[in-house]
Amino acid sequence: MNPGFDEVRACIECLRRSWLLADLGPFIEVACDDRPGKRTPELLALDDRDLVQAMAPSRAREMLASNRGLGADLLHGELLAARSWAVCRHDSSFPGVLLGSEDAPRCLIGRGDPRLLAGWDSGASVTVVGSRRPTREGLAQARSLGRDLVRAGVVVVSGMAMGIDGAVHRGALEAGGPGRTIAVLGCGADRAYPGRHRGLHSEITTRGAVISEMPPGSRPWRWSFPARNRIMAALSSVTVVVEARSGSGSLITADLATSSGRDVGAVPGPVSSPLAEGTNSLIRDGAALIRDAGDVVEALGIPGNALRGVDAFDRDPESRAVLEAVAEGSSSVDPIAGRTGFPAELVLSILTRLEIEGLVEVSSTGEVVAVPAVS
Predict the structure, then answer these.
(1) Which end of the chain is less congested by CB atoms within 10 angstroms, N or C?
(2) Would you call 196 exposed, middle or buried from its count of C-beta atoms within 10 A (0-12, 13-18, 19+)?
(3) Residue 319 in contact with residue 313, Cβ under 8 Å?
């Protein structure tokens, strides 16, 4: 039994808002787009009456009356049946960082440990997002970030999507002890989405927390993903993007973080890779360059960072294999690929990062040499 799974610390009005969003799901799906006034955060900033009137004017009176008829016993019973807890903006355990904007969620419904939200410190949490179809190197980077950030005492926030999100959650869980990772979903927190992450969902609810502003059982909508992204961006003082194409949803999260006054970091990649277009553009436009968890902790301003003395390849088997190949005499991409069995594109990506970290040097002719350690 998860601690606090039966706790309902949300007032009835805030709970009704969550159920209202679920009822309005198909209407918002049709109405929401990229035009000013039709964007998800702008719509969610409306109060109940204005939102219903804007989304379903012909049914506004009926839907509002039905929503007002939802009693505490009914809603508490549904939460209990879903083994979920709830906290709203009127309770002291609600994260204060979510209260600063008009589109802030009224209520968070979750599974797992609600104590992760109590006394929330955005300066000790990082949101990590990225491509749903990443490279092997991107997956390794995300997993390493999740693991090392949790070991540094940081809470890792992501969206449990395929690819980078799932990898960073798994890394956080690998760190040992309480997972200190929170997954923010665009559907009910009791619902494993995507379905292939059913096991990951179960492990996060056992050792971390899964949260949503939607009630149990709610299905995901296209609009509910940018909706959950605004929560992810607001929870942490730093959002890190690991691999993203231009125009991807991860860049939307980064934009939301910037507009909320949060810092953004990005992991660089080869200029020839489409999956590095978004992250490299973020760095060009002023985002912090992120090589490893040490850079993230530094961006958070946490003192006494022990990660800075640990080379990235000590935590990354792919990078370690490439460095060993270089040390054994492989002097360019093809020989390294042959020795490690990695695709040449992966080797080039790893070499780019290792060069940024000062662990190797790559000449204009493509010759690779290891940089001797400074004693």
Answers:
(1) C
(2) exposed
(3) yes
Q: How many CB atoms lie within 10 A of CB 303?
A: 7
Omega within 30 of 0 (cis) for the link into 194: yes
From 257, 261, 266, select the one nearest 285 (Cα to Cα).
266
- Cα torsion at 248, 233, 38, 34 (round to 10°)? -20
Tens of pLDDT, residues 36-49? 777 898 999 999 99
For residues 191 and 218, is the Cβ–Cβ distance under 8 A? Answer: yes
pTM of the model: 0.81
pLDDT per residue as tens digits for the range 126-183:
999 999 999 999 999 999 999 999 988 899 999 999 999 999 999 999 887 666 899 9
Distance CA 227, CA 44 (A): 8
Ranges 116-130, 186-200, 218-232, 298-312: which has the least confidence: 298-312
Domains contained in the chain, CATH given: 8-308 (3.40.50.450), 311-370 (1.10.10.10)
**In the β-sheet with 8-9, what is the strand arrangement from edge to edge?**
8-9, 85-88, 107-112, 209-212, 181-184, 155-158, 125-130, 238-242, 263-267, 288-289
Among 100-114, 140-154, 291-305, name the one with the lowest average pLDDT: 291-305
In this structure, how many other beta carbons lie within 10 angstroms of the beta carbon of residue 289?
15
